[in-house]
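Now for a chain:

_____
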Amino acid sequence: MLYHAARGRDAQNASILFNFLSASITDTILAKVNTEPERYVLQVPVPNQINQFVTVNDGTCLLKAIIDHTYTNTLSCATAAREALSSLDTYMAKLPKSDIEKMNQYVREKVNELAAANQTTSDLVMNLFKGYGKAKDKVFRQWLQRKKDDYITRREIINPNGLDLMEQVQNYYKDRVNTGEWMKLDEDQETILALKAQHWCTGHKEWTIHTSAECRINKNKDAKKEKKTKREKAEGSEKSEQKGKKQLTLQVLQTIADHVQEGEDSESCYSP
């Protein structure tokens, strides 16, 4: 920069700006711009000195580096925000208790991230309908579907920024929460839930709230069966042992008999 070589007011301003920016930006941005010091750390020729240079930190160049990094980061955030707004149904499906207030706060954050990159979304209203439609309150979904039908058929006008729809939905949500009706099961849902909670019991031969493995009758049968099996094994082992002893006894007696017979035969050979 020529103004650094001139060592005038512009050089002083650039130095002050550098110090101000360095102290003002976040550690994250500072770490990023510090990876490219050659963009703002300049080698300025020393007046009247050949091949002599002095190192100068230039505030104007640092500001340009900060803007470049911030803009790139903002574009990345905007892309992620746009994808998030198109997937509000996935977000709502995972949201505990289908909390509409948290949903709306999430939407506002993503819209602000788009605005930071000077961008907008043209399909926010439909994305909101898609997201709200995953709430686990049946009455709310029916009410929402009527609003969606009115919007599609142009019987109701909704601002493209979605703010009026978000406000109406949040008010409806708060009313149901305050009256204790939010996510309350109706008779059909309670019946379905009760049926899902029942199991066919092989012990009782009917539908029960316990499983066959938890059934007291089956447990008693299994215990008796196990006891019988152990008894049969014990009896079989005892019989096998007795049989073995009997066979051993017979072998011993046979051996004795054989020796006796051999002795008699020997005596007969030597008799006159």
In short: The chain has a mean pLDDT of 82. The two ends are 147 Å apart (CA to CA). Residues 32 and 69 are 7 Å apart (CA to CA). The first strand starts at residue 41 and ends at 45.
